[in-house]
């Protein structure tokens, strides 16, 4: 079953045009300074990495951002100390009109609309590798990805949990000149702080209790390929200078070792946080942020691209039951939901819907087939237990058996397993943790 969009390629818009804007300092230190936006987002603060740098000590390093969107100019405070104020009200996030005056510290800025639009290219395709989306938000990302993939620049992926940052990182790798090399994933949120240095840089025998042999870290394992550092916002502060040095010098030193090992690796990092806010909180080093922020891609949440729900739902459903169309009533139900868990939650919902409403799920693997005598049994159902509890229990039981069968079929290789069933690697890892399984690249079978 095809999941392609019905909109012909030649009829799709080739660019997104947004109302241009400028920011001008009209009061306070630096009065008269102005910045005209050339990209959709402008950041303002005292740090040199901002688009508009303010010489006001009462302003935070990364104070606020202003973005042109199809709905208007979106103002976001970036966790500043003194707040961002419009018309006497403190604003965390909201739309402002042309002519609005924004006060930060002792500085007031004027938002003004300009005659020239901000133009962003849109890909004519509704996908890039395994990534899918026909919304303008995704197609503007797809338009940039070929150039990003063919460079060797560090990439920082930002977006909420479940938006597909891991899939995006893998797609960049697969489209890059390093595709023949390894794609090594290191999840900072899944590693104990005491072990993360060894996982990143490796160790030599005897360097700590349990170090029974020399071991290469993730950077060395990714030689000739890509290292994907997931949830980098969780990296402990004391590790951040060491990572910065590795990125700057393109070399690492194993724990307990003396020799530095030269690196040949491309770095992609991801986080579900806005690292500018973390810099303001002193929870993330500014110098490491600037080193990572070479190419920054924000992956929008599903609620901001609801037009992609049907595209994704049909694709996920077709993967599970290729010969059956997605029911209209199910699609309508999916459209009405807000999806706080984003694409990952949508995929899980499709799996549950197929499991409980479509017998074709039994064809996915022998491990989930029922014995002939069990197909119509209902004497093991406890009607004293609420429906939702029974349903969740059945879902968990099937999910556990599915993951177990998948690991057995792929000899506990997580990378192969995620590719085989087209499941996001981080989602598979969360299932392994949920059911107490360990994959080969998790440190054991």
From TrEMBL:
Residues 42-91 form the FHA domain. The lineage of its organism: Bacteria, Pseudomonadati, Myxococcota, Polyangia, Polyangiales. SUPFAM superfamilies: Homeodomain-like, P-loop containing nucleoside triphosphate hydrolases, SMAD/FHA domain. It comes from the Bacteria. One of its GO terms (molecular function) is DNA binding. It comes from Polyangium fumosum. Residues 131-355 form the Sigma-54 factor interaction domain. CDD domains: AAA, FHA. Keywords: ATP-binding, DNA-binding, Nucleotide-binding, Transcription, Transcription regulation. This is Sigma 54-dependent Fis family transcriptional regulator. GO terms for biological process: regulation of DNA-templated transcription.
